[in-house]
Amino acid sequence: MASILKLGPRWRALIRRKGHKSICKTHPTKAAAEAWARMVEADLDAGRSVAAIRGIKVGQLIEVYRGLREKVRPILDSSNEHYMLQHLAEGLGDMVAEALTIDDLIAWCTQRAEEGAGPYTLNMEISKLGTVLRYAGAAKRLTLRDVVGQARPVLSHTGLIGGGNLRTRRVTEDELVRLLQVLSRWMADVVVFAVATAMRREEIVRIAWSDLDVKKKLVLIRDRKHPRKKKGNDEWVPLLGVAWEVVQAQPREDERIFPRHPQTISKAFKGACEKLGIVDLHFHDLRHEGTSRLFESGYTIEQVALVTGHKDWRHLRRYTQLRPESLHRD
After folding, report:
1. Which of 9, 13, 151, 236 could serve as 37's disulfide partner, Cβ 3.0–4.6 Å?
2. Do 53-165 and 173-327 share a fold?
């Protein structure tokens, strides 16, 4: 039986077994010390050796995972995955991976929820933690229990994690006019372009002047988001209506047409909404708006998919909230 002793603000777990050297480690909480001791004793009971790497922290495993991904599919700094890993590292990074408990995950999810993270976001982040522990743990030859799987029932029951609600928010004409009035020139152009093309912010900032086909008024979106393909999914997309005019109005001072960081765009858009008192409007809702406008203009589902890049036409339903008045014909 392990000996758990309080040493100042920390807790020490000491394990003595006949035929083995004493194993000792300090932890920030008693629960963490007990959990670590149970896992070490379980290894000893099963005849497994206690690796010298014991005590590796969640933050270290996150870095191992990032390294593994560099070899196959690097995690971009602008991706949602990057920010999920960042949140995990900030909240759980200092905890010992092998001593991670259900209570630790509940406490972290509760804190994230208080910061404004919704059930769907937390569900995604907890899933990413499970992926990190599984792959990075295997790379480090660690036998980690599935603490994420064990925590899921209680996290779901308490409402801390859950499925995503499909957004149906569309920007109104009045909101759009007001936004364009307060936004800087470059940001206003980005907003107009986003509504006209239904492009994601990452796609907008990535396109270069060399990606334009001037004769056909097309733009090449490289490595477009795809449910299965991560690379090589390049698509030619028509720049309809005002989209082409916005592009031609941009200064040719950079190899990219809109040389900004995705987070800069989100921050500017959020700031303008807060200034105008516009509630619950995200930049990604402009993709929803642009898709709906394409349908209201009379384009077929096949034609709309050519613009938006949807591979499964059924997914277009979530973006297509048609206004009843659009059915009237002049």
Report:
1. 13
2. no
State both tokens at 281.
Answer: 């409007």
Q: What is the DSSP string of 191-202?
A: HHHHHHH---HH
d(CA 28, CA 26): 7
Q: Tens digit of pLDDT for each residue in 173-206?
A: 889 999 999 999 999 999 999 999 999 999 999 9
Is residue 25 within 8 Å of residue 18, measured between CB atoms? Answer: no
Q: Where are the domains of the chain?
A: 1-50, 53-165, 173-327
Which CATH code fits 173-327? 1.10.443.10
Which positions ≥6 away from 108 have C-beta within 8 Å?
Answer: 91, 92
CATH placement of domain 53-165: 1.10.150.130
pTM: predicted TM-score of the whole model, two decimal places: 0.52
Residue 212 has which token pair?
Answer: 């334009």
Dihedral of the CA atoms 39, 44, 48, 50 (nearest 10)? Answer: 70
Spatial distance between the Cα atoms of 203 and 195, rounded to a whole number of angstroms: 13
**Predicted confidence (pLDDT) at residue 230 exceeds the cutoff of 50:** yes
pLDDT tens-digit profile of 217-227? 999 998 777 54
* Sheet with 23-27: strands ordered across: 3-7, 10-15, 23-27
**107 vs 231: which has the higher pLDDT:** 107
The secondary structure element, H or E, covering residue 27 is strand 23-27
CA–CA separation, 19 and 12 (whole Å): 21
